[in-house]
Amino acid sequence: METQIEERLKNIETLLKRQNLNDMTNWTVKELAESTGRSTKYVKDRLVNNSVFMPTLESNGVVIYPEGVGGAININTKKMLHFIEENHSKIFGREVCK
After folding, report:
1. What's the pLDDT score for residue 97?
2. What is the pLDDT of residue 23?
3. What is the SS3 string spanning 7-66?
4. What is the Cα gyration radius of the chain?
5. pLDDT score for 93
6. Do the beta carbons of residue 30 and residue 40 sit within 8 Å?
7. Sign of the CA dihedral 80, 60, 74, 54?
8. Residues 6+ apart with CB under 8 A from 15
9. 3-class DSSP state for residue 71?
10. Residues 84 and 91 sit within 8 Å (Cβ to Cβ)
11. Residue 41 dihedral angles phi and psi, to the nearest 5°
12. Do the bridges between strand 26-27 and strand 74-76 make them parallel or antiparallel, or are there none, so unpaired?
């Protein structure tokens, strides 16, 4: 499991380099899901809308949540990659953090 996570992180870094996304400042939830190889629902449930991570994501400027219902969630690409690296076992592990 740990090896698969590390491979996904390497794939994200490769994607960033290949598409010159290092200068890109924001991802959508869909782009984050595609980059991690997970579904949009998985990314929302386990990461972006997870009550354990939300306060940290918001206070550190990793995710900017919409003020109203139906607005787009903006994700700072570089900060999210760093957050995933530091918390990958909690995010992609078997236990559900809620």
Report:
1. 52
2. 55
3. HHHHHHHHHHHHCCHHHCCEECHHHHHHHHCCCHHHHHHHHHCCCCCHHHHHHCCCEECC
4. 13
5. 77
6. yes
7. positive
8. 21, 35
9. coil
10. yes
11. -60, -45
12. antiparallel
pLDDT of 47 reads: 94
Mean pLDDT by 10 residues, the chain (98 residues): 71 65 74 89 93 95 88 90 89 64
Residue that the structure tokens 């794939």 belong to: 11
Strand 74-76 relative to strand 63-64, pairing: antiparallel
pLDDT value of position 73: 92
Would you say 80 and 16 are in contact if contact means Cβ atoms under 8 Å apart? no
CA proximity to 77, closest of 91, 62, 66? 62
